[in-house]
Amino acid sequence: MAATALAGAVEAAPPPPVYLAAGPGADPMRNAGYTTAAYLLFFATLGAVLWRSRRRQRAIEARLGRLERALADAPRAAPAAAGGAHPLVRAAGHD
Amino acid sequence: MSAQTERPGLGYPALVVVAGSLVLATIYWAFMRAPFEMVMGAAQKIFYFHVPVAYSMYLGATACCVGSILYLYNQSEKGDAAARAGAEVAFLFGAMTEVSGIIWARPIWGVYWSWEPRLLTALLSTMVYAAYVVLRNFAGDGEAERKFAAALGVLGAANLPIIHYAVQKWGGNHPAVVTGKGGGLGHPDMKIAFALGMISFTLFTASLVWARARLHLARARIERAEERALELGLLGDEA
Q1: Most exposed among B23, B63, B83, B193, judged by the fewest C-beta atoms under 10 Å?
Q2: How far is CA B5 from the centre of its chain?
Q3: Cβ distance of B221 and A72 shorter than 8 Å
Q4: Can you tell me the ipTM of this complex?
């Protein structure tokens, strides 16, 4: 719904006027390539940082959750010698 | 120690949604409503993000400084996490400021780079926070490293007012956008786009610092949990 409203607003908006009177032959769209490059680079970088940060956050929270649960259960857990890695070793991601 | 990781409340997602919506509104206003500036043409529209991002670098650096002071005062884990998050955000936005400024400078000044005071001092700050990030990522996470980084975080903030006043004190080519001398913000829609950019990036910076600080706090808890497991003899030497 918000997207539809935004699309409607974009369609309804008049073309941006040229601010002040440009000289004869002046092109308001000059340098548009630089602007496009700046914005694309800008949002690509932001997107990559946000995506990577979110992915790392999830991985760390999952690892922390496993570790803390295993630590809470540690007194009840069997020693590592009983076979296979101790649950804490697995939880910490060292196995 | 809790058995569950702390779950974020509604505050963080709400902040991200509001900040993201305002960033979209800024793009809309900058490209659909704000007119083209007479002298610079489309390149002037870089200002609607270049300036808020530079301001965001100040915010990140301020978070780094405040967190560093807190850490030096009481060795607060939260202070250290805030300082580290602030430095990362300051580095990210500092680098973005430099790159967007370089792209703007090429068509307007005819060169990508000019050794003028504001560019130089801003580059210096970006390098200080790059050093902080490198130090924290590659020099270990002991108390000595944390204290050294905290000192860097406090001293690094000293350059912020120098960046701000560099144009007034030493001249140079850099336009003073907000005061209207060469920045091209004479039209009301230009001012609205600029204000939206400043508000959206303030919120966006807050959400980024928040997210990164949570990440560092979670890492610190993992280290404490592993240390406790080692003390209990539950993790072998391989930990």
Answers
A1: B23
A2: 27
A3: no
A4: 0.71
Do you know the residue count of chain A?
Answer: 95
Q: Who's near B221: CB < 8 A, 6+ residues apart?
A: A64, A68, B5
Residue of A nearest to B207 (CA): A50
Contact B229 A27 (CB under 8 A): no
To the nearest whole Å, the CA of A25 is away from the closest chain B CA by 12
CA geometry: angle B63, B130, A45, nearest 5 deg:
85
- Show contacts of B21-26: CB within 8 Å, 24+ apart: B22/B196, B22/B199, B22/B200, B22/B203, B22/B204, B23/B200, B23/B201, B23/B204, B24/A6, B25/B196, B25/B200, B26/B52, B26/B193, B26/B196, B26/B197, B26/B200
Which of B22, B45, B231 to probe by mutation at the A interface, max A CB count within 10 Å? B45
Q: What pairs with residue B182 in β-bridges?
A: B176
Which A-chain residues 17-76 have CB contacts (< 8 A) with chain B?
Answer: 17-22, 26-32, 34-35, 37-39, 41-42, 45-46, 49-50, 53-54, 56-57, 60-61, 63-65, 67-69, 71-72, 74
- CA angle B81-B4-B225, nearest 5°? 60
pLDDT tens digits, residue range B87-106? 999 999 999 999 999 888 88
Q: What is the pTM of this model?
A: 0.79
Which tens digits make up the pLDDT trace of B166-202? 777 777 777 766 665 555 577 888 889 999 999 999 9
